[in-house]
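Bench notes, afternoon.
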Amino acid sequence: MAKQYWLMKSEPYVYSIEDLEKDGSTCWEGVRNYQARNNMREMKVGDEVLYYHSNAKPPGVVGIARVCKEAYPDHYAFDKKHKYFDAKSDADNPRWDMVDVEFVSKIDDVEQPLSLHDIKADAKLADMELVRYGRLSVQSVKKAEFNHVKKLAGL
């Protein structure tokens, strides 16, 4: 199967690109939207990810990650003490999954990302899911869009 490209959002105060750089890799837990979950289920090891800081000033792309472990059950859904607990999730038929991602690179100044405003202003990115359906936390990205964003961000 051909490599795929994605965009994953995280609030920088929850888990930033700097956190990923320091840790090397992490599980991407806590996704509780079915379309975002389905997108993670499509991810394969080696797929590349635009790392996006949401709920930031300004929000935008701050780096690149890579999928290093394919979808598996999000064990936090079964932990009654965890904020991502889901009483309706069943260990025999898990409702929620997660993937692992690893750090690849980051922009020089994460305080000045390739902003959502700049992305929306670029005609080559007009059909990007981020522009059309901005709220989804895990989105597919076309190869040409991914490469264009990397170029614009200097990654």
